[in-house]
């Protein structure tokens, strides 16, 4: 008989089971948060091809945001399937082993980085859309300033997450002697507050310009409503803030799931909503013409006029976003003049219409 007793190697459960509704909710939400934004971005790019438009900066920003959003959702799935997310911390250590906890807290660090990048580029995409549709100084300067602030703030959030614990390994190993961490819950709360502020500013930025458009009130309200759908991201952010007081890093694997779920949902919704203004060409593709009117133009052959009858055709004044009309107001320095018909114009023949009009746009700026 050996004098040394055999050492008992602890047996941990593997794989981690899906046992509660919180885990299932995270898996479902993260899966949908990959599929739905990807579909909308794909439709957005397809709409670009329909209008024969090359990709713009707004498209590149949304693509970058989509890539990091997908990485974010995969990170959340891994926290559930390999990090024990949804179980109490002590249960994770006892059932699945300490290595599972290490995996979880490393994934939480990655989550913060991926979230900030995804949020940053989704917001930059919307701001770039504003400057494309409303290219006036009153829009360009505020949008540029807000964009710079968003870049700096999200970069600061990433650095704050990386530096909040000393030494660095303290982020995932709370047993290091002499190690310490700042209040991570307060850090997330402040980060969320400024995120809501930027959401509100982005939401309100185009409203004065949309309201000043010379359009029928119903069309004006439709436009305002289309741009106001971003309020959904504000609602998600606010609800996420409400859940933060219940966040306890001593039991983060259990108390942090709801806040993490809504945090993961936010960039997915933001990317999806940012694509909606670009989808109008897809809607027009399925529309059927309702007019069968004909028109006939006659005139002097030397200036290239035609006397053949043609059906009315819809004007395609699509801008970079695929919208039918570029939303611009005229600065006070601009004037528009229409010249009267020329006196020496060819006398119209019977049963014909001759229209000749010259337009001149001048700027005093």
UniProtKB/TrEMBL annotation:
Domain of life, source organism: Eukaryota
Entry keywords, A to Z: Membrane, Transmembrane, Transmembrane helix
UniProt protein name: Rhodopsin domain-containing protein
InterPro entries, per database record: Rhodopsin_dom_fungi (IPR049326), SAT4-like (IPR052337)
Topology versus the membrane: Multi-pass membrane protein
Family affiliation: Belongs to the SAT4 family.
Residue ranges annotated for the Rhodopsin domain, each copy included: 43-284
Localization (cell): Membrane
GO cellular component: a single term: membrane
Species name: Parascedosporium putredinis
Bilayer-crossing regions: 24-47, 59-83, 103-131, 143-164, 187-209, 221-242, 254-279
């Amino acid at each position: 008989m050996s004098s040394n007793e055999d050492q008992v190697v602890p047996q941990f459960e593997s794989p981690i089971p899906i046992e509660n509704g919180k885990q299932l909710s995270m898996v479902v939400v993260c899966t949908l948060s990959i599929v739905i934004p990807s579909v909308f971005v794909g439709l957005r790019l397809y709409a670009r091809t329909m209008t024969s438009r090359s990709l713009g900066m707004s498209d590149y920003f949304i693509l970058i945001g989509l890539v990091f959003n997908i990485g974010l959702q995969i990170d959340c799935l891994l926290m559930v399937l390999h990090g024990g997310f949804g179980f109490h911390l002590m249960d994770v250590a006892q059932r699945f082993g300490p290595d599972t906890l290490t995996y979880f807290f490393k994934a939480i660090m990655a989550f913060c980085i991926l979230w900030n990048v995804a949020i940053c580029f989704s917001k930059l995409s919307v701001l770039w859309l504003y400057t494309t549709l409303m290219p006036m100084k009153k829009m360009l300067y505020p949008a540029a300033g807000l964009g710079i602030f968003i870049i700096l703030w999200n970069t600061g959030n990433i650095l704050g997450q990386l530096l909040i614990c000393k030494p660095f390994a303290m982020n995932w190993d709370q047993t290091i002697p002499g190690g310490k961490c700042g209040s991570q819950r307060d850090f997330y709360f402040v980060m969320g507050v400024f995120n809501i502020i930027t959401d509100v500013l982005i939401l309100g930025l185009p409203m004065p310009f949309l309201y000043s458009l010379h359009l029928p009130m119903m069309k004006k309200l439709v436009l305002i409503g289309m741009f106001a759908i971003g309020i959904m991201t504000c609602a998600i952010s606010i609800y996420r803030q409400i859940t933060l007081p219940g966040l306890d890093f001593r039991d983060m694997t259990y108390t942090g799931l709801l806040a993490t779920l809504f945090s993961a949902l936010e960039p997915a919704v933001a990317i999806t909503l940012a694509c909606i203004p670009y989808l109008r060409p897809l809607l027009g593709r399925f529309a059927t013409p309702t007019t069968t009117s004909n028109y006939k133009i006659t005139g002097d052959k030397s200036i290239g006029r035609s006397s053949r009858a043609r059906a009315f055709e819809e004007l395609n004044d699509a801008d970079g976003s695929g919208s039918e009309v570029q939303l611009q107001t005229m600065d006070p320095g601009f004037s528009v003049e229409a010249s009267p018909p020329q006196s020496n114009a060819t006398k119209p023949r019977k049963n014909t219409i001759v229209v000749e009009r010259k337009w001149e746009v001048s700027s005093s700026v």
